[in-house]
Write a structure and sequence with these properties.
Radius of gyration: 32 Å
Largest sheet: 8 strands, mixed
Oligomer: single chain
Strand order of the largest sheet: 13-23-22-15-16-17-18-14
Number of helices: 33
Shape: elongated
């Protein structure tokens, strides 16, 4: 920014490389660093014509973090460094305003005591409230706290530091500076920063820089102020500046959410006029800010999040970064920047985080008018900080949010304001509500980054943590109280809060700009994106979202309805082929209808149907009423069916009599399914529909299994085609989901015409961990204490174990059958990081749930573009 000629307070930077060295050397600095910092500080002093630590004309500095990616609120900052009992008097005389100088000093004591020395922040906050109460009103705005009260606060804050930390507040400015520098480096490894990095998969080795910058003051009177502005709306991407301003305040007041700021513009988009806006209070600074925003956005070629200070009419830009935004805003901004000629189409594709598209599937609440017709009125209204809707139990602490969410409950985190320490609770909650704060407060920025519905600045809400009560001052003057645990609903798109549960409905996930972005993605991606679908409605949804076929139809999922489940149980527990045949015939008819629906919905596109892969324990009757129903259907005594059911129970059902093993030992089951598939296909064919069925054999571990199963399927399929006198192409392939299958993929490929990886089971067998039980200990394994795993391998492909097996299998299978089609159809098929691995391995397609198809389309395009860039860089290096 300085090189662009922008008004930036002078300063210097300690780089991320130094952070890495700091941790590698047990938090010791290089011997030459103090001398280098001293020279840099002297250079800054010459520019500003003030000296650091000078009692008469002191230069103060801020010490800020500077990671390579935006991590709002996760790391620490210390402002007003350099103040002590002497320099505070000099600062007051210099500016002719002792109240201002004392206010800056009490801020330093509070931040330094908390961030550097480890005192409890709440102790300072409680003392501030006590002093405000003594001098008039506990809710007194900070700029109204009188000089006498500030002097009293300074004394009490020093006492808090001495009592809690065992050391006095350092009067030496140099000691303050180095304490602040170390605290910022240390904050890279604090619990909230670690949690945030895990959440977004940022590497630990990146480190943070430390920016030491001359202080400029927004709390020097009514011609001063601080603000945060986005060059475009971070909620919807609208091309209008969006931000907040606090008169006579330091920047920390804006982002911490402790005060509710005003807007930048007089009209903020709601149509209402705001007379306390920056545009009204500081028109010249506002005009200059508009010019600088435009200049920065054009230079950075992205939406900017800018912090600024107005010091007695002089505008200063403190920092800029690419702003956090919702999925909707990300798509709009990327496509608009292409239209404006600032970026290319491939850059636009790379700009949008694939996971952010999930936010476009956010649930929404009906509008207030529609709800009013049903007798439902909002209890309060705040600022719509992050769109979407949430319904859940009120929780008042991040710990309670984590605890209840771990038990499967939906919770809404309700706070006066959030702090960076709340990050885990914010992640666990389905929505966030704060009584104070604005659209650029910590809660708002972090919630938008997470895609969580969030309402902030709900001034009619007050929270009593001690009594576990949330109070609402209603529009009619009455008051309503809700207890922690009560249900509320949030409308993050409009800002309304409702004191009851309201059913939410998902969005369609499609809009013109998203369709445009995804059409560009389709131009670049190499891999095909299919969907996992077990019913015609799922197939229709997948096709609407752009799926190019069905990569996995789990036929066992078609039997969960009561009547079908009874038929399956009768097949498993019948004691004779004739009885089993009667029930198989019934199942064939329902399967035939299901497959017909899938084939017609996906006309012209491939449909892969996986034959039954039921772990039998999931289908066996357990309750007496269910056993009785089977006994009655089969015409046998209850005791006989009960014994037969018990005899079929397995110690390790996920590794038991399932998949191809069941198909080969009970060939009539796979024959029935093949008949149903091919009869449905024949019906479609006779009606003029184009289709190519792909029949998948599950859990194959040996070439012999594949050979026998393929022979069974081919024979059954041709029985149908010959009877119907139809010629139709179909394929028989397999799912590779055990380490052995991957290692002998060349032998299996002698018989398999296509292969798909079932990475859910493959991950289980590679790790020797049951995915059904992993949740019991994964929190510890992925926590700060053990850190055994950084990413859940059932959510994102393990790059060093599972991915290596994929690579081996692809290479071996293609040595045997060069054109064999290979894909992935586990849950990893919709995970962007896993899709990158699939691109590197050379898979032909990924398959995922219908709602993740847009995410997979974008991620596949990004993976292709990144691979091309990597190959290009390698060529240049050679």
């Amino acid at each position: 920014m300085a090189s662009l000629g922008l008004p930036v307070p002078p300063g210097f930077t300690l780089s991320t490389a130094l952070c890495t060295e700091y941790y590698a050397n047990d938090k010791r600095y290089p011997e030459s660093l103090r001398e280098q910092v001293g020279k840099a500080l002297s250079a800054v002093e010459k520019v500003v014509k003030r000296r650091f630590g000078d009692p008469g004309n002191p230069m103060l500095v801020s010490v800020r973090s500077g990671a390579r990616v935006s991590m709002p609120g996760m790391m620490d900052t210390v402002l007003n460094v350099g103040l002590n009992d002497e320099t505070v008097e000099g600062l007051g005389r210099k500016h002719g305003d002792m109240r201002f100088a004392l206010d800056a000093y009490r801020r330093l004591l509070m931040m330094y005591g908390d961030v550097v020395l480890g005192a409890e922040r709440r102790a300072f906050e409680n003392e501030l409230v006590n002093v405000k109460t003594k001098f008039g009103d506990a809710r007194m705005p900070d700029p109204k706290v009188p000089e006498e009260a500030l002097r009293e606060l300074i004394v009490s804050f020093k006492s808090i530091i001495r009592e809690q930390c065992g050391v006095p507040f350092p009067q030496d400015p140099q000691q303050q500076l180095w304490g602040a520098i170390s605290a910022v480096f240390d904050s890279w490894m604090n619990p909230r920063a670690k949690s945030y990095r895990r959440m977004y998969n940022f590497p630990e080795h990146w480190g943070t820089a430390v920016n030491v910058q001359t202080m400029v003051f927004g709390n020097l009177g009514n011609d001063s102020g601080s603000g945060v502005v986005f060059s475009r709306n971070p909620s919807n991407g609208d091309k209008h500046i969006f931000g907040e301003y606090l008169q006579n305040a330091q920047g920390e007041d804006v982002v911490a959410g402790t005060r509710t700021p005003s807007t930048i513009r007089t009209r903020d988009g709601s149509g209402e006029s705001n007379k306390s806006s920056m545009e009204m209070l500081a028109p010249q600074g506002f005009s200059e800010l508009l010019t600088l925003i435009e200049k920065l956005e054009k230079h950075r070629r992205d939406m900017q999040d800018i912090e600024f200070t107005l010091e007695q009419g002089k505008l200063w830009i403190l920092q800029t970064r690419s702003g956090k935004r919702t999925g909707e805003a990300a798509v709009r901004i990327a496509t608009d920047l292409v239209a404006e000629g600032l970026i290319s189409k491939d850059e636009a594709v790379l700009r949008v985080e694939p996971a952010a598209l999930d936010q476009l599937m956010h649930p929404v609440l009906p509008g207030p008018k529609e709800l009013s017709k049903k007798g439902i009125e909002a209890m309060a209204k705040g600022l719509p900080a992050s769109p979407g809707a949430a319904c859940g139990q009120i929780v008042l602490t991040p710990e309670e949010a984590e605890s209840r969410a771990a038990k499967g409950m939906s919770v809404v985190l309700v706070r006066n304001e959030t702090s960076p320490d709340d990050i885990r609770g914010m992640k666990a909650a389905v929505g966030i509500l704060t009584a104070t704060g604005g659209m650029t407060s910590h809660a708002a920025v972090v919630a938008r980054g997470m895609g969580k519905p969030c309402v902030v600045g709900a001034n009619a809400v007050s929270i009593d943590e001690e009594k576990q009560i949330v109070r609402f001052n209603l529009a009619d003057g009455s008051r309503k109280e809700l207890q922690a645990g009560d249900i509320i609903s949030l409308d993050g798109s409009r800002g309304y809060i409702y004191g009851q549960g309201i059913e939410v409905a998902p969005l369609s996930g499609s809009n013109e700009r998203l369709d445009l972005l995804l059409s560009w993605a389709d131009e670049y991606r190499r891999m095909v994106v299919r969907a996992n679908a077990d019913a015609p409605a799922d197939a229709a949804l997948a096709r609407r979202f752009g799926a190019k076929g069905i990569g996995l139809c789990r036929t066992e999922h078609m039997f969960f309805e009561e009547e079908r489940l009874l038929a399956v149980r009768c097949v498993l527990l019948a004691d004779s082929p004739s009885k089993r045949g009667d029930w198989l015939a019934k199942l064939k008819e329902v399967q035939r209808k299901d497959f017909y629906g899938l084939f017609t919905e996906m006309e012209g596109l491939p449909v892969t149907v996986r034959l039954l892969d039921w772990p039998m324990h999931e289908f066996m009757p357990r309750l007496e009423k269910d056993i009785s129903a089977v006994a009655k259907a089969l015409g046998e005594p209850l005791s006989v069916i009960s014994r037969r059911s018990s005899s079929l129970r397995e110690n390790n059902p996920m590794l038991g009599h399932r998949g191809v093993r069941l198909g080969l030992t009970h060939p009539e089951i796979y024959a029935m399914q093949t008949h149903a598939i091919m009869e449905a296909a024949a019906d479609c064919h006779e009606q003029g529909h184009s289709l190519h069925p792909e029949i998948m054999i599950p859990l194959v571990c040996t070439a012999k299994e594949m050979s026998l199963a393929k022979e069974l399927v081919k024979k059954s399929a041709h029985e149908v085609l010959d009877r119907r006198k139809i010629s139709m192409e179909f394929s028989v392939g397999t799912m590779l989901e055990t380490p052995r299958a991957c290692l002998v993929a060349d032998k299996i490929a002698e018989h398999a015409e296509f292969c798909s990886f079932g990475t859910n089971d493959l991950t289980q067998t590679v790790y020797g961990i049951s995915r059904d039980d992993a949740g019991k200990f994964f929190p510890q394994y992925m926590g700060d204490e053990l850190s055994v795993l950084t990413v859940d391998p059932f959510s994102s492909l393990d790059p060093k174990g599972v991915a290596e097996l994929l690579k081996i299998a692809v290479e071996k299978a293609r040595r045997t059958r060069s054109g064999i089609k290979m894909g992935i159809c586990g849950e990893h098929g919709g995970d962007p990081e896993s899709i990158e691995i699939c691109e590197r391995v050379g898979l032909d397609y990924v398959s995922c749930s219908p709602f993740r198809v847009p995410i997979a389309r974008l991620a596949a395009a990004q993976a292709t573009l990144k691979e091309k860039e990597s190959a290009s860089n390698s060529t240049m290096a050679l």
